[in-house]
Structures are given as structure tokens and as C-alpha cells.
Design brief:
Elements: H1 15-37, H2 41-54, E1 60-64, H3 70-74, E2 82-87, H4 90-102, E3 109-113, E4 126-132, H5 141-151, E5 152-163, H6 171-190, H7 194-206, H8 211-220, E6 223-230, E7 235-241
The structure holds S-adenosylmethionine.
S-adenosylmethionine binds near residues 20 and 23.
Length: about 240
């Protein structure tokens, strides 16, 4: 990635600091906005991620950049014994903790405040690791992915769900209009943080996807890397192993 996109364009603060502050600020209305900006399709994408993980019958799962924990909650369907949702934003984690408690899932899911670029786990610990809409927020993408590789068991599955950009007409043009005109407007109308939704579309536009992202995963050391574009390519599910 050539240019560094940060939420507040503040050159004196790290991207990580700015990302944590932004997600703390929007945590209260993040879930609602997520449904609005994706027209609810994000629910379907998360279900696909769960299905892929379920097939491998994992016991221990790490959901990196878990945010308010939607994917971690859905991952309970895999029958895993231990699920950890990890995030740097205390605000997002608190919203998630309330949801987990309300669903009586706190015996399976623990929410941990930590940095994906310095994971507090031993090597080869998790059977499966997931990240949904998280990798493009990492300050140092390669460091975050290397840490994930380190704590994943050999043969374990790594599944990423991330925004991507449709390459075919007319979806390409439709997506550009939506992400540059409609998305920031929704952000302005519904969010307390006006920069947040401009950041989300700008960072999506600048982030590698498809074969470029596959190659980053391979460079880090992941094997059997595959990308599966979703809904005209507005999101992609990547799978890999170690
Ligand atoms: C767009 S949200 C996605 C949340 C959730 N996975 C979902 O699908 O709704 C991105 C999350 O990444 C987290 N994040 C960004 N950088 C991180 C890092 N270095 N370590 C851990 N979490 C991080 C943010 O705090 C935020 O909660």
C-alpha cells in the first residue's frame, strides 16, 4: 500500500491510536450502521465465514479485530470450546461484552483488549483464526498477519472477510458512486464521527484485494491461499492455512 490512510489525518499520531479512538467513538451505533451501509448483506457474508470454519471442527478460535463481537458470536455455531474476540478498542469490546452476556455465551467467548500486531498467545495455539473487516485497519498489515500465522496451528484455517472493489461494469461504477457519495453521507447523518465514514470508504479504496492480497498472504508464509469474491466483488472472503 503506497499511501497511509488514517481516520483523522493527524500526522503526529499513529494510525493505531486514531483507529482505536474512531472505533471507541462510533461503537454505540456501529452495529446499526453496519446493517445500513451493507444493506444487511454483511450477515450473509459472516455466515459463510462461519461455515468455512465449521468444516474444520476447531476447538479454539481467535477472532481478531472482533469489534462488537458479531462474528465471535456466530462462531459459537461451530461448537468450539473456546472463542476469543480480540480488539484494541475498549468501546467496541464493551458493546460486544453486553451482547455476549445477554446471549449467555460468556462461558465460551472471552473479549480481550490487545493489539493484533502483538498477540498475547503462544505459537501454534489456535485451530482457526478469523478477521472480518479488520485487516485494512491494521497499522502494520504484515506484522499483524505474521502474528496471526505465528499463533495459528499448522493445518489450522485462517479466514478473512474484507471489503474489495468490483472490477466489472456496471458494478464498478455503482460501487464508486456508493462509496464516495452515499457512504460518507450516511456517516454524516447517522454517526457522531464525521471523519469515520470517509475513512472507511477511503481505506477500502486503497486496500489491496484479490490476487494482490493473496500474494501478501503467501509472502507472509500462508499456504493454500484462495480468494472468493462476494456480491459482485464488494467484499472478498480469503482462506489460507499454515
Ligand atoms: C470495521 S471494525 C470490524 C469489527 C468486526 N470484526 C465486524 O466484523 O463488525 C474493525 C475493528 O478492527 C479493530 N482494530 C483495528 N486495528 C486493530 C489492531 N491493531 N488490533 C486489534 N484490533 C484492531 C478496531 O478497533 C475495530 O473494532
Amino acid at each position: 500500500m503506497s499511501e497511509k490512510i488514517t481516520p483523522y489525518n493527524d500526522k503526529n499520531r499513529s494510525k493505531k491510536d486514531q483507529v482505536a479512538e474512531m472505533f471507541d467513538t462510533i461503537s454505540g451505533n456501529y452495529d446499526g450502521l453496519n446493517r445500513v451501509i451493507s444493506f444487511g448483506i454483511d450477515i450473509k457474508w459472516r455466515k459463510k465465514v462461519v461455515k468455512l470454519v465449521h468444516k474444520t471442527n476447531p476447538e479454539k478460535i481467535l477472532d481478531v479485530a472482533t469489534g462488537t463481537g458479531d462474528l465471535a458470536i456466530n462462531l459459537c455455531k461451530t461448537g468450539a470450546l473456546e472463542i476469543i474476540g480480540l480488539d484494541i478498542s475498549a468501546g467496541m469490546l464493551n458493546v460486544g461484552k453486553d451482547k455476549i452476556k445477554a446471549k449467555d455465551l460468556d462461558n465460551i467467548i472471552s473479549m480481550v483488549q490487545a493489539d493484533s500486531e502483538n498477540l498475547p498467545y503462544t505459537d501454534n495455539y489456535f485451530d482457526a483464526i478469523t478477521v472480518a473487516f479488520g485487516v485494512r485497519n491494521f497499522e502494520n498489515l504484515e506484522k499483524g498477519l505474521s502474528e496471526i500465522l505465528r499463533v495459528l496451528k499448522p493445518g489450522g484455517i485462517f479466514v478473512i472477510l474484507e471489503t474489495s472493489i468490483p472490477t466489472k461494469t456496471p458494478y464498478k461504477q455503482g460501487y464508486k458512486f456508493y462509496s464516495t457519495k452515499i457512504l460518507p453521507l450516511i456517516g454524516k447523518l447517522f454517526s457522531k464521527d464525521r471523519s469515520a465514514y470517509s475513512y472507511l470508504s477511503e481505506s477500502a479504496a486503497a486496500f489491496p484485494y484479490g490476487e494482490s492480497f493473496n500474494n501478501i498472504l503467501r509472502k507472509i508464509g500462508f499456504i493454500d491461499v484462495e480468494d472468493k469474491p462476494q456480491t459482485f466483488g464488494v467484499a472478498t472472503i480469503y482462506t489460507a492455512t499454515k
